[in-house]
């Protein structure tokens, strides 16, 4: 398992001034401040649509808590949001981010279960990448005493999604086999750890080759994403596998269905294949849609196969599933306290470094979770590049980039 937090962040000559970028923040009296810093997405598109701006300080409404944010999770979904690669995108400008953690700073009327000073993690329907957030208590969970803020920011979304897919949609049991794509990513590593809590589960992980050494102990078998994984899995399990977790979509849907054993479950929970260049590609979108196997229920009946879909954010924010999620979170926090699971953290980034962080996930460079650490200072280069004092104004369009350009990173975490 990767080491947590700051220890993992490799310092380079570019990271020289730990106080750079802090001057812009009103830190004299945080509780009386009228403004806060937040990452703002000015419009859908490339990295140039992201900036750090000052926003009005939010105040909690009935049933809400106000949280002084310490750290936020950066997910692949945030990259898709930036590109506008999602259904029914909200209007821009918006503050991205779906999860954060921090300390309760105030509690509105009719709000029960939380007190000022509680260490909490929370889901938000956008707006998480800010110094302060307000959110209904239905989406807030107390952190265990020994959980760090870095771990908390890396916990909620990936572990809840992995848990609900494995145990509530697919009913993972002893002796089963699971195939997971993007096995080195945040959800992939959560899936691998949760599978290890059940005896004798075989995990087939698929990931970019350079991650194999780091993650091979977390799965039973690991394959390069460019190999014919169907053939490789069938050499080991000729009958196929019990569960396929597919976050890629497109051609993988048909391949995955062909890998299922009778009574096996296929779960679609993402569409990473739609992301190719820096901005939304209608070609990739259409290709992915076109390649999806058209499902015939009669074939499912004949072959004894189960097809499912899972979207945690829709469950939480559109389908009233917060009690289901709370119950999954309680079980996960118990597993954490028993030291059976622990989030894998890839790297920590200042808010002003959000472009570089997002590029790292786009470049397939991450192993585990990327964290936006609200108290981390940006490098001077990043601060000059991304920090703005006003929300207005757009920059020039950047050309569509290619996906394999790790050299563009000004530094590697
Ligand atoms: N439905 C839900 O509730 C839910 C919740 C959380 C996440 N998700 C989905 O789960 C997937 C993983 O999310 P995550 O946040 O944990 O991300 P992640 O796996 O930590 O990071 C992204 C990884 O995805 C792989 N990848 C696959 N296609 C890619 C592409 N076109 N461009 C760049 N990388 C690509 C890369 O790993 P390799 O190169 O090693 O393959 C990359 O390192 C995403 O599809 C996300 O939308 C769904």
Automatic annotation (TrEMBL):
Source domain of life: Eukaryota
Pfam assignment, any one: ADH_N
Domain Enoyl reductase (ER): 45-372
Alphabetical list of InterPro entries matching this protein: ADH-like_N (IPR013154), ER (IPR020843), GroES-like_sf (IPR011032), NAD(P)-bd_dom_sf (IPR036291), SV-ATPase_mito-regulator (IPR052100)
Signal peptide start-end: none
This protein's record includes keyword Oxidoreductase: yes
Region annotated Disordered, chain positions: 378-413
Bias kind Basic and acidic residues: ranges: 403-413
Extent of Acidic residues compositional bias: 391-402
Entries under SUPFAM superfamilies matching the protein: GroES-like, NAD(P)-binding Rossmann-fold domains
GO MF annotations, alphabetized: oxidoreductase activity
Name by which UniProt lists this protein: Vesicle amine transport 1-like
Organism in which the protein naturally occurs: Xiphophorus maculatus
